[in-house]
Design goal:
Elements lengths: L10 H8 L6 H14 L4 E7 L6 E6 L6 H8 L21 H9 E10 L2 E8 H7 L5 E2 L11 H4 L4 E9 L7 H18 L1 H5 L6 E4 L2 E2 L14 E2 L3 E5 L2 E9 L9 H8 L9 E6 L2 E5 L20 E7 L20 H24 L16 E3 L7 E3 L4 H9 L3 H14 L13 H20 L4 H9 L10 H12 L6
Parallel strand pairs: 1-7, 12-14
Antiparallel strand pairs: 1-2, 2-6, 3-4, 3-6, 4-5, 7-8, 9-11, 10-11, 11-14, 12-13, 15-16
Helix pairs in contact: 1-5, 2-4, 2-7, 11-12, 12-13, 13-14, 13-15, 14-15
The structure holds adenosine-5'-diphosphate and magnesium ion.
């Protein structure tokens, strides 16, 4: 076969572009921890140092480590590719993670590893690559950085240390932004690895700048008010998939608002509703409805915020689930979409019920503030009104063909509620009367539409509470309605 000869990529151009895959800092660190977990580590120490504006990061584990040949292979771009057979607990995939995650965050990657007493150190330096233009893997640390890798030697046993230097923090970086970024990383790791930190997977301690992380459980199973749904087991080409919905507790069922907010998660309650897809126990997708919902994709709406669904896939399911290089997104295989949709419909419905109904409390006895469905008003005559933005109310208004009908009904309830002051003790304000007449009109129109004759309909509306409190209501209705339909009202 005639060829143009080998056309290798320009190292620096390729590597620079691989560094732009869109890894966030937190996703990049998580990818390195995947490697540590795959290497059998039970302790991973993540350290970020500001270092007077020249920050660096270290990720040290006590996993199996690598010998020199393995280390060189690990530094190769696309080492163990997606076609290789992996152990079921291997969190790796493309043989790119270590490199792409690192280059997305730093320009100098040094890896030290220890196996049976021998320490090997290798490094990629994008700036050296750009000037040298070669794929020569450098040996040892950069001059002056020896101390930063020494932790690997000071400990006995095996392990690996990843060192990121010349971080891409941008020119406008400040200590405040750096710290903010670290808080995000911390929350993300507590979420992504929660089943390793204190869940059902092999136990791994993750220390973040010296502090052991506590796992963040999206399903809040520690709260007895969480309602786990029946688990389901689905099958796809890659094997079985376990699915279990959870309806999380209403906010009233948390001990305090801090606990409630923490349960919401790094991005908050509304954003974090939906599916949680785990690959070999490691969280890939944290919320969202995976494009399901039929002709109109489900959005993350206020009312469904208590619905979360756990999905467990195997690491053989990558292709079927279209797991991306960053392990940040997944799409369910077509064969499972219907089953997942059905499960989600049930969980969403149950979650909306909890969200709406638990909030519907009568005003607390003893004159305390009206909670839930009712709010207090400035009016002495009608001290309580129904909250139009209450989810239960909102849902009915949204679903109603004629929302003004719902409004009319609510007004009727408010104005005739037994908790309002005695009808004659305070005179209704003019605008309150107008409101009542408006509601009466809506009701009347509906009765007419139902086929009642006008006199009967007007009598029925005018005779019922609270409309009967407005003097001359029957006449007003007759007048206004006649005008509305173009008839002669005189
Ligand atoms: N912390 C570590 N401990 C031991 N081996 C590691 C570690 N990190 C990376 N490796 C080795 O380097 C290889 C390449 O890692 P990576 O680029 O992340 O790709 P992948 O995880 O997809 O295999 C891994 O398969 C593993 O053999
Ligand atoms: Mg990896």
């Amino acid at each position: 076969m005639s060829t143009y000869g080998s056309v290798p990529p320009h190292p620096s151009a390729l590597v620079e572009s691989l560094g732009n895959l869109g890894y966030s800092l937190e996703a990049a660190v998580a990818d390195l921890i995947d490697n540590s977990i795959a290497a059998g580590a039970s302790l991973v120490e993540v350290c970020f140092e500001w270092n007077g504006g020249e920050p660096f990061a270290q990720i040290l584990d006590d996993g199996c480590g690598m010998n020199e040949a393995e280390l060189v292979e690990a530094m190769r771009l696309g080492g163990t590719g997606p076609l290789a057979v992996r152990r079921s607990d291997d969190l790796g995939r493309y043989g790119l993670g270590l490199k792409t995650a690192s280059f997305s965050q730093c320009r100098r990657l040094t890896v030290g590893s220890r196996q049976r007493g021998d320490i090997s150190v290798a490094r990629w330096d994008l700036d050296a690559m750009a000037t040298g233009g070669s794929w020569d893997l450098l040996e040892g640390t950069a001059p002056g950085s020896e101390d930063r890798i020494s932790a690997i030697g000071s400990r006995g046993g095996t392990g690996t240390l990843i060192l990121w230097e010349v971080l891409r923090t941008g020119t406008e970086s400040s200590l405040a932004r750096f710290t903010e970024g670290l808080e995000r990383v911390e929350r993300h790791l507590a979420m992504v690895f929660h089943r390793y930190i204190d869940g059902d997977q092999r136990r791994v301690v993750i220390r973040f700048n010296g502090q052991a992380l506590k796992g963040w459980d999206p399903f809040v199973v520690a709260n007895p008010a969480t309602m786990p749904q029946r688990p389901a087991r689905l099958r796809d080409a890659s094997g079985h998939v376990e699915v279990r919905g959870y309806v999380l507790p209403h906010r009233d069922r948390f001990r305090n608002s801090d606990e409630h907010e923490a349960a919401g998660g790094p991005d908050g309650w509304v954003a974090q509703q939906g599916f949680y897809v785990y690959r070999a126990g490691r969280l890939i997708v944290a919320g969202g409805w995976l494009g399901l919902g039929g002709s109109r994709e489900w959005l993350r709406d206020e009312a469904s915020q208590l619905a979360r669904i756990r999905v467990d896939i195997l690491n053989t399911g990558d292709r079927a689930w279209r797991i991306d290089v960053r392990k940040a997104t997944a799409r369910p295989p077509a064969a499972l979409r219907d089953s997942l949709t059905r499960i989600a419909v049930d969980v969403r419905r149950a979650a909306r019920e909890v969200y709406a109904h638990r909030g519907m409390r009568v005003p607390s006895p003893g004159g305390g503030p009206a909670g839930g469905l009712w709010k207090s008003t400035a009016s002495r005559r009608y001290p309580y009104a129904i909250k139009r933005d209450h989810p239960a109310v909102q849902a009915v208004i949204d679903a109603a063909e004629d929302p003004s009908m719902v409004d009319a009904m609510l007004l009727a309830i408010e104005r005739s509620a037994p908790l309002s002051l005695a009808p004659n003790s305070v005179r209704a304000e003019t605008e309150e009367v107008d409101e009542i007449v408006l509601a009466a009109n809506v009701l009347l129109r509906n009765l007419l539409a139902l086929g009642l004759d006008r006199t009967t309909a007007i009598n029925r509306v005018a005779g019922s509470e609270p409309f009967n409190q407005v003097s001359g209501i029957a006449e007003r209705l007759l007048l206004e309605n006649a005008r509305g339909t173009g008839e002669d009202g005189t």
